[in-house]
Design brief:
Length: 690
């Protein structure tokens, strides 16, 4: 048998070598292409990890790894600060001032001689709600009071009733600025009959300059489904409310965080604090929420260790809080947690990537959840992950995915394709939507379906999709979902000016009106105004009211005039929740290179230390004691965007677990170790035994 020559062998092997070369080249291409690599990993069931190129400073004076799950539970009041001897200034929570002022009002009411026709009227009683007042008086018998704050037109009257009392604290909400406001009071007996009337006049100051010209009526019917419509968040740092004519009738003279506030029941809301931002993998996140009412009283403070964003709702009226927060584990704005209303403890948490381990999770902001709500009848939540172009229903206790409302094309090549609702008829799908809520009304007259309202921003900037068509508009869309058949159809779609981000849709079942709140419209869309509020008649689709807003806003919702709790003296509130815990270490503290005088500012509230500095300039805070050393380290959470380096972070650190000792405070600032200063010299905290 003749042996093949080298050339003949090479000729035979060449196709195989070429094929192997192409295969290797393809493999290398796939490996160095992140999307192809993630697809390969997904096929093998391997979790996708992101490669982070951090910006900012991550130096460590003492090697330590901060466990993100290791948080200290907080349950205290402002008096907890007394446990520590320190030269770090104390900043009291609003609970303390609220309780002090409320106690003075109670003393006036009990000790004064104020009757129905000669009440004590205090305008802006708590110093942060200028278009409100409080009328104090007593009556011999317990009676209800009907209060009418007169409007410029009868439809603009603000009317509500207080509970039956003998010692009356009647809130006056909805005053006009820079005006002598007429207020009518009527005493009611048990049957609702008027037994006496009185008239009051309340003088108010003018609006701050920043609010002049804030609202322009575009279409105005002179009446609205909402007595007052609140506007808040984004550039509207101080929330305000307008009436049916577009006149500002309430505002809170207190700056809020990026998302403004979250409505609660009983005439209360949660306000995002504007001065407590923790470092994040993206923009700093607000960690402190104040529970307040529309007079400006503070009831409770909640800490969320890794911030709140976009939405907080009550699970049931007055019940636990469903909060959107962040994992900080390569992602953010990807977690839903339920907080016990009284203790602030998390009783159930879902990290969305646990459901979608290998699908679409490579992006930093892969999900961007912007609404959450709980359905009591089947213990589920409905969420809106904006960057997945999807609305989802998920079991809250079992954490199982029930269905996805989305353009089916987006999920067609994934393991979740069978859980996507099947469209009936032609559908102009939502993309990068904000707000997705179940409508509490049977709009399609079909008991076998549920209705979901969505604000469809209708953009795909954050997650490109081939089936997207830019119409240049946004939409208030209502879907009818048959959960048994797993089908969906559109039953209402109303066009509005395009808002690339933020915004919300609200259906009002009592009036049959649907609102579309375009929070950020193009500057050239309406004379330089940056937001637009629409009120439609649902059936006809006609615009009833349309108001242009001078500034960008996050959302607009009804200011619900539920005044019963506001009429009662306030009870002592508490500070609850959880904060990151400094780690105990066995290590010598290196010699600092100097002392910082102004770059880092320290304050205390209760048992929490707040460290304020430019974002990502402080990487460690060190408590150096005679016998103990603790380190708070944030180097494990990496920031990728330089856009957020100019923000000021005010990082909270729990002090409650520090062993008794005398501690000097240091920090790693821009990768070098420094001593910190406070009032009177080098910063210190002395912890005594409890």
């Amino acid at each position: 048998m003749r042996r093949l020559s080298f050339r003949e062998k090479l000729k035979l092997a060449l196709p195989i070598l070429i094929a192997l070369g192409l295969l290797c080249a393809g493999a290398l291409f796939c490996w160095f292409n992140p999307d192809m690599r993630d697809a390969f990993r997904q096929a093998l069931g391997i979790e996708v990890h992101r490669t982070v190129k951090p910006v900012g400073y991550y130096g460590q004076a003492i090697p330590v790894t901060q466990d993100l799950g290791d948080v200290a539970q907080i349950a205290e009041d402002d008096a907890a600060a007394a446990r520590y001897e320190s030269n770090i200034p104390i900043v009291e929570s609003p609970l303390a001032s609220t309780l002090e002022i409320d106690g003075m009002l109670t003393g006036e009411l009990e000790g004064g001689d104020y009757d129905f026709h000669d009440p004590m009227v205090i305008q802006d009683a708590f110093g942060n709600s200028p278009l409100t007042a409080l009328a104090l008086f007593t009556t011999p018998e317990a009676q209800r009071v009907r209060c009418t704050v007169k409007g410029k037109t009868p439809a603009a009257d603000i009317r509500y009733e207080t509970p039956a009392q003998t010692a009356h604290r009647v809130p006056l909400i909805g005053l006009y600025p820079a005006a002598e406001n007429a207020v009518e009071l009527a005493l009611l007996d048990a049957e609702g009959n008027v037994t006496d009337t009185a008239a009051l006049t309340v003088q108010t100051g003018g609006l701050p300059d920043r609010m002049n010209g804030m609202v322009e009526p575009v279409v105005c019917a002179g009446e609205s489904a909402y007595g007052l419509t609140m506007v808040y968040g984004q550039s509207c740092k101080r929330p305000f409310a307008i009436d049916c004519n577009g006149d500002i009738r309430w505002y809170l003279d207190q700056e809020t965080g990026y998302y403004g506030l979250y409505n609660l029941s009983d005439g209360r809301f949660l306000l995002q604090d504007a001065s407590s931002y923790t470092m994040s993998v993206s923009k700093p996140q607000t960690v402190k929420l104040y529970e307040m009412d529309y007079l400006g009283r503070a009831y409770q403070v909640y800490y969320l260790p890794y911030g709140s964003h976009h939405d907080v709702v009550e699970k049931t009226p007055g019940g636990n809080l469903m909060c959107l927060t962040s994992s900080m584990e390569e992602h953010y704005e990807d977690v839903i947690t339920e907080l016990d209303r009284a203790t602030g403890q998390s009783v159930n948490t879902l990290k969305l990537s646990d459901l979608f381990l290998n699908t679409y999770t490579r992006k930093l902001d892969w999900a961007h959840i912007n609404t959450v709500s709980w359905q009591s009848e089947d213990d589920t939540i409905i969420i809106s992950p904006r960057n997945l172009h999807s609305v989802m229903k998920i079991g809250w206790t079992d954490h199982k995915l029930k269905w996805i409302l989305c353009d089916p094309y987006f999920w067609k090549d994934t393991r979740y394709k069978d859980q996507v609702l099947k469209p009936e008829g032609d559908i102009l799908w939502h993309y990068q939507q904000h707000t997705a809520y179940r409508v509490e009304a049977d709009l399609d007259q079909d008991p076998d379906t549920i209705e979901i309202s969505v604000f469809d921003n209708h953009v795909d900037a954050q997650r490109k999709i081939d089936t997207f068509t830019d119409t240049g508009l946004s939409y208030a869309t209502v879907y009818s979902v048959n959960e048994k058949d797993m089908t969906v159809r559109v039953i209402k779609q109303l066009e509005v000016l395009q808002s690339n981000v933020c915004s919300n849709t609200v259906y009002d079942p009592d009036s049959g009106r649907i609102f579309a709140m375009s929070g950020i419209i193009p500057e050239d869309a309406h004379h330089g105004y940056l937001g637009m509020i629409y009120e439609f008649d649902y059936e006809s689709g006609d615009i009833v009211n349309q108001f242009a807003i001078q500034k960008q806003f996050y959302r607009a919702t009804e200011l619900p005039l539920k005044v019963d709790p506001i009429c009662e003296p306030i009870a002592a509130g508490s500070i609850v929740g959880a904060l990151p815990r400094p780690q105990a270490v066995k290590a010598d503290v290196p010699e600092p290179v100097g002392t910082l005088a102004e770059e880092v500012v320290l304050t205390r509230t209760g048992s929490a230390l707040f460290v304020s500095a430019l974002n990502r300039s402080v990487s460690q805070v060190i408590f150096a004691g005679r016998e103990h050393t603790y380190v708070y380290d944030n180097t494990g959470v990496k920031l990728e965007s330089e856009n957020y380096l100019d923000f000021t972070a005010n990082m909270p650190v729990a002090l409650g677990d520090l062993e008794p000792d005398e501690y000097s405070l240091l920090c790693v600032y821009r990768d070098a170790l420094y001593k910190l200063t406070a009032d009177g010299g080098e910063a210190y905290i002395n912890v005594t035994a409890p």
